[in-house]
Amino acid sequence: MEMIEPSTLLILGIIALAAGFIDAVAGGGGMLTVPALLSLGLPPHIALGTNKLAASFASATAAWTYYKKNLFSPRFWLASFIATFIGAITGTLIVNLISSEWLEKGLPLLIFAVAIYTIWHPQPKDEQYVLPSVTPILKLKQWLQGTSIGFYDGVAGPGTGAFWTVSSMILYRLDMLRACGLAKAMNFTSNITSLVTFIVLGQVNFALGLTMGICLMLGAYIGAHSAIRFGAKFIRPVFVTVVLILAIKLAWQAWF
């Protein structure tokens, strides 16, 4: 790749900062970073691999922030980690063996449904929240959720954070703040899994990915702290707005 102009790097940094903030609060930062990378003339597979490197900084920062504020318990969600890892590997390995046309056309409808559910879903009070009891049913939910969403992230990716957030609210009755914390941790798991695959295939621009990653990390730090400070009243409108924009973007690409 040719040398990038300083002004272009500055614009990329600002885009990455905004994407990190959005991703930490609602997910969907890739809506900004992937087109930005493609605009540089990178081949699509290089752009995706580089974005995974940068996105890993954001998801790691957000997940760590939620963990430090006691809004996420890694031990409790161990089965989800393992299931997501397995699902992401499987999806990444077989992505070229399946037709994604039906997924591209149906995905916007599913994401619209996520936004509608979020608008009307009643929120439990944060101060009264306790983790659900550990039962065989809970473990089954974690395995089914982790493998399916991890698989989807390996195959496609758009809306993964939104699916994690809303499905966690449904399956475990998490409040939105804790559901976002879980989503960021699982996003990091599937991001790293896909990133390793892209690295093995030689499809990552490390210089560009690390540069954008630093800005994404800063944006994610600000976004996660904002979400934790202001809670669901801040997360919900941002989440719904980002999800609706994502759905419209995907619908336009698939149907028109």
UniProtKB/TrEMBL annotation:
<keyword id="KW-0813">Transport</keyword>
<dbReference type="Pfam" id="PF01925">
    <property type="entry name" value="TauE"/>
</dbReference>
<keyword id="KW-0472">Membrane</keyword>
<keyword id="KW-1003">Cell membrane</keyword>
<feature type="transmembrane region" description="Helical">
    <location>
        <begin position="234"/>
        <end position="252"/>
    </location>
</feature>
<dbReference type="InterPro" id="IPR002781">
    <property type="entry name" value="TM_pro_TauE-like"/>
</dbReference>
<feature type="transmembrane region" description="Helical">
    <location>
        <begin position="76"/>
        <end position="95"/>
    </location>
</feature>
<dbReference type="InterPro" id="IPR052017">
    <property type="entry name" value="TSUP"/>
</dbReference>
<keyword id="KW-0812">Transmembrane</keyword>
<protein>
    <recommendedName>
        <fullName>Probable membrane transporter protein</fullName>
    </recommendedName>
</protein>
<comment type="similarity">
    <text>Belongs to the 4-toluene sulfonate uptake permease (TSUP) (TC 2.A.102) family.</text>
</comment>
<feature type="transmembrane region" description="Helical">
    <location>
        <begin position="155"/>
        <end position="174"/>
    </location>
</feature>
<feature type="transmembrane region" description="Helical">
    <location>
        <begin position="195"/>
        <end position="222"/>
    </location>
</feature>
<keyword id="KW-1133">Transmembrane helix</keyword>
<feature type="transmembrane region" description="Helical">
    <location>
        <begin position="102"/>
        <end position="120"/>
    </location>
</feature>
